[in-house]
Design goal:
The chain is α/β, with parallel strands linked by helices. Helices cover 45% and strands 22% of the residues.
């Protein structure tokens, strides 16, 4: 009798185990279908005006795998992705430490005068024109001894759509003075909420006494606020739709799984506050002008290399 009872209980356990396993599979499948559907919904919202991606960039990008859980991503902002001889309008390195969950953001001034492999001394953003993200990766490695693992080129025409999806009520900033020249909008002085198009103008404006330095500060400010906005962006369920909306405007070698994995930390609030840095540091450069290159920032490479490595390594 006892033997029969034991056998019966074992059969019940096996049966319930199979039921639970089947339910887990169904939930996983439903989750996958939902994510796929939301990504497609975002893609549909992006419509057909997204630029054609440059497949050569991915093919030619020869990076190392991230070390110690620290992911370094080259972020490039551009109006003319895919065109020959196009220079990057914005140049940043974003680092995310999967272990400590600390995000870091490095802005590199586009007029920084550095050695570009095979092209001598140039403004650093010229590396993109000469050889795309791969040559820029090599340039950063040669001058600053930093390994970049991935790249993402963001076309500015998609930026307003992404912002308006994340923050339908706008992003609050304090505009220091009237801004209008060459940004397609007019922004008036004072604290206000800006929609996507206005926010793009805010981060791109450079016709004041601060020039590119002010623009870099505003870029870091806005990226920090977008990171905070992501944490309140209707939870993680909306993230696949946002990724689908952004994908047509981003030329990158980062796969969707990594986007979702890292994006999850930002949406759930697990990612910490963004730590920010700028190359060149104050006191480590001079303004120079060369006949063939125009105005450049003649930077102390050794000092900036040491400072950048210390920042990214957490020293």
């Amino acid at each position: 009798m006892n033997a029969r009872s034991d056998k019966h209980r074992k059969k019940k356990k096996i049966r319930w185990g199979r039921i639970i396993f089947s339910l887990v599979l169904l939930i996983a499948a439903a989750g996958g279908i939902y994510v796929y559907a939301q990504i497609n919904k975002g893609l549909a919202e992006a419509k057909v005006d997204a630029p054609v991606k440059n497949t050569e960039f991915q093919k030619n990008f020869h990076s190392e795998k991230p070390k110690d859980g620290k992911i370094n991503i080259l972020l490039l902002g551009s109006d003319s992705r895919g065109e020959k001889n196009a220079r990057s309008d914005s140049l940043l390195i974003a680092q995310y430490d999967e272990r400590s969950h600390v995000p870091k953001l490095v802005s590199i001034m586009r007029d920084s005068y550095v050695r570009v492999p095979g092209h001598g001394k140039q403004k650093i953003n010229a590396a993109v024109a000469f050889g795309g993200p791969e040559l820029l990766r090599q340039t950063i490695k040669e001058n600053f001894d930093i390994d970049v693992n991935y790249y993402a080129i963001i076309d500015f025409q998609g930026f307003p759509k992404i912002v308006d999806k994340m923050a339908p009520d706008g992003i609050e900033v304090n505009v220091p003075h009237t801004m209008s020249k060459n940004i397609g909008v007019t922004l008036h002085k004072g604290e206000q909420k800006l929609n996507g198009k206005e926010l793009l103008g805010y981060v791109r404006y450079r016709h004041d006494s601060q020039s590119d330095f002010g623009r870099v500060e505003r870029q870091q400010e806005v990226l920090t606020k977008l990171k905070d906005q992501a944490a309140s962006f209707n939870g993680i369920m909306k993230m696949p739709e946002l990724i689908g909306l952004a994908l047509p405007y981003i030329d990158t070698n980062i796969d969707q799984n990594m986007m979702i994995t890292v994006g999850k930390d930002f949406v759930t609030g697990q990612a910490g506050a963004i730590e920010k840095f700028r190359i060149p540091e104050d006191g480590t450069f001079e303004n120079k002008r060369y006949e063939t290159k125009g105005d450049v920032l003649e930077i102390d490479i050794d000092k900036n290399r040491e400072a950048l490595k210390a920042f990214l390594e957490g020293n």
